[in-house]
């Protein structure tokens, strides 16, 4: 029964990642709870440490990839920061919208943040502004995909170890 609950928590964590919420931390919390209530030591230092490192890397990627894509498409450092802060602000602003609000908010926020901040630097190139903002949007999508990939790795690692396979 405990293994089933861990699997459910991992699936819920993956869904949370898609919604822009901290699903990797839910999975790690579920693993700690599983380890606490199931007799014997299920997850060792390597499993918990490895999943924590994956979760931290995923968080860093989530907050930096949109900025890097913005700058890669010709945006200024200011536009990169606009993508980063706009993505965060949009994710929080979108939370009241059911199911996908935070994801759409993060994508829109990264686009708008990069666009507005780049506009303060160069107003004479509308096509360039859109290109930079689109880079921020693509970066945000790549960041979400990378975090989802890390989440799948964390979930698989935890379930395999809990099932006795590792």
Question: How does this model look, in words?
Answer:
It is a single chain. With 166 residues, the protein is mainly α. The chain has one domain (2-162). Helices cover 80% and strands 0% of the residues. The protein contains six helices and no strands. Helix 2 runs antiparallel to helix 3 and helix 3 (45-72) crosses helix 4. The protein is elongated and about 65 Å long. It starts with a helix and ends with a helix.
Number of beta-strand segments: 0
Give the class from helix and strand content and strand pairing.
mainly alpha
Q: pLDDT below 50 for ≥5 consecutive residues: which ranges?
A: none
Q: Specify Rg, calculated over alpha carbons.
A: 19 Å
Q: What is the H/E order?
A: HHHHHH
Average pLDDT value?
A: 89
Strand content: under 5%
Number of helices: 6
Name the helicity range.
over 70%
- Return the domain count: 1
What is the molecular shape?
A: elongated
Oligomerization state: single chain
Instruction: Characterize the main sheet.
Output: none
Termini gap: 19 Å
Quick synopsis:
The protein is 80% helix and 0% strand. The chain has helices spanning 2-18, 23-37, 45-72, 77-93, 101-119, 126-162. It is elongated and about 65 Å long.
């Amino acid at each position: 029964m405990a293994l089933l609950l861990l699997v459910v928590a991992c699936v819920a964590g993956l869904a949370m990642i898609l919604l822009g919420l901290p699903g990797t931390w839910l999975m790690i919390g579920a693993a700690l709870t599983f380890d606490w209530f199931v007799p014997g030591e299920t997850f060792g230092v390597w499993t918990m440490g490895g999943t924590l490192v994956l979760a931290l890397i995923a968080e860093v990627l989530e907050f930096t990839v949109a900025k890097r894509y913005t700058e890669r498409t010709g945006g200024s450092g200011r536009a990169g920061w606009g993508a980063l802060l706009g993505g965060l602000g949009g994710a929080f602003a979108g939370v009241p919208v059911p199911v996908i609000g935070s994801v759409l908010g993060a994508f829109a926020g990264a686009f708008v943040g990069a666009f507005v901040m780049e506009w303060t630097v160069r107003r004479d190139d509308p096509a360039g502004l859109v290109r930079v903002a689109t880079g921020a949007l693509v970066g945000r999508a790549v960041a979400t995909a990378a975090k989802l990939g890390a989440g799948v790795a964390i979930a698989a690692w935890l379930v395999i170890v809990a099932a006795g396979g590792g």
